Amino acid sequence: MSKPALLLIDVQKGFDEPYWGQRNNPHAEAHIARLLAAWRQAQRPIIHVRHCSTEPNSPLRPERPGNAFKDEAQPLPGEIQFSKTVNSAFIGTDLEAYLREQVITDLVIVGLTTDHCVSTTTRMAANLGFTVTLVEDATATFDRKYNGRYYTADEIHQTNLASLHGEFCTVRPTAAILNEI
Amino acid sequence: MSKPALLLIDVQKGFDEPYWGQRNNPHAEAHIARLLAAWRQAQRPIIHVRHCSTEPNSPLRPERPGNAFKDEAQPLPGEIQFSKTVNSAFIGTDLEAYLREQVITDLVIVGLTTDHCVSTTTRMAANLGFTVTLVEDATATFDRKYNGRYYTADEIHQTNLASLHGEFCTVRPTAAILNEI
Asked: Which helix (H) or strand (E) holds B135?
């Protein structure tokens, strides 16, 4: 069995801007940093994904300062990076080809946001045949409004995890994953 | 602009079995039937997707009676059908190639279930560049359990629509769509 790769989705500074709304799980970045340190120490594969938005007002546009990776998720030289313009890290990128070439079959996914890019990438990874672990406390999202109702970020986060768990991935906390390295 | 295609996801008899849990929106099939009739009358493109599960116990396995389309969504001769084995109707099928060849750019998505195959197909359609309308009352899902908590089918349905609306698609009711045909 191959070593599982840590796939970091869009851990970028632009998500700190008020543009996105109210966030949950402020400790996500600390958990991501701990997982990243453990992955480096164990010499497991690490893959950084950066969102390069084409939306006119997005803080994640390539020319904006918010496009930069957060301090907790700065790639080291030699760690592979993929840039994407849509939610799925598999569309418009060479991620799938890279994983096949490296014979990586297991992914541990962290990053932002739970219900948009993390969920979409988790779903597509699973449907492409990869085994996915999604780290519940190393991801986060923002509040959403729909049909005159307001949903808190935590409500969106939890229900989206409930939809993913068992169908597309196993949802687990950071501590359980660190315990097994 | 091309005529929007009606994309029917997994409207199959096997979803009536207790295997899946408690469902919401019992009127989904009636709404699907009305949309299908309107699409046929307007001679707009119709695409049927059938799930052929590889899960050992799934009522949607190809050899089970539950694999059949429900009466409300029976294809007519000449209407195209795609079979899939994963959630996304775009993975392991020729759906994308067919849509490009037919110059179909707009999809109206209905079917089962909101947070699994419908959500995954909606996300991937949007990320591949299609314009997607998701019909909120022509889809439904089941209750989910995660992390010791129970989520009703309606809670899962509504929050998943909230995550999709505006990011991947426009969520609209059947009546609004029928009004415009």
From this structure: strand B131-140
Q: Tens digit of pLDDT for each residue in A16-48?
A: 999 999 999 999 999 999 999 999 999 999 999
SS3 B173: coil
List the beta bridge partners of residue B110: B8
How remote is the C-alpha of A1 from its chain's centroid? 23
Residues 6 or more apart whose Cβ sits within 8 Å of residue A65: A13, A14
Name beta bridge partners: B169. Answer: B165
- Contact at CB, B171 and A147, closer than 8 angstroms: yes
Chain A residues inside the 8 Å CB shell of B158: 146-147, 149, 151
B63-103 pLDDT per residue, tens:
999 999 999 999 999 999 999 999 999 999 999 999 999 99
Q: A24: burial class by Cβ within 10 Å (0-12, 13-18, 19+)?
A: buried
Tell me the DSSP string of A60-104: TSTTSGGGSBPGGGPPPTT-EEEEESSS-TTSSSSHHHHHHHTT-
User: Catalytic site residue B70?
Assistant: no
In total, chain A counts a number of residues equal to 181
Structural domains for chain B: 5-179 (3.40.50.850)
Cα distances (Å, whole numbers) of residue B20 to A101, B72, B136, B153, B180: 37, 20, 20, 11, 34
Q: What is the spatial distance between Cα B66 and Cα A46, in angstroms, rounded to a whole number?
A: 42
ipTM score here? 0.97
Q: Which of A70, A115, A117, A137 is catalytic?
A: A117
Mapped onto helix, strand or coil, the DSSP state of residue A26 is: coil
Rounded to an integer, what distance in angstroms lies between the CA atom of residue A87 and that of residue A118? 8
Q: Measured on CA atoms in the order B172, B175, B176, B179, is the torsion positive or negative?
A: positive
Sequence-distant (≥ 6) Cβ neighbours of residue B85 within 8 angstroms: B51, B52, B53, B54, B92
Amino acid at A89: A
What are the angstrom distances between the C-alpha of A159 and each of A102, A104, A112, B152? 33, 29, 16, 10
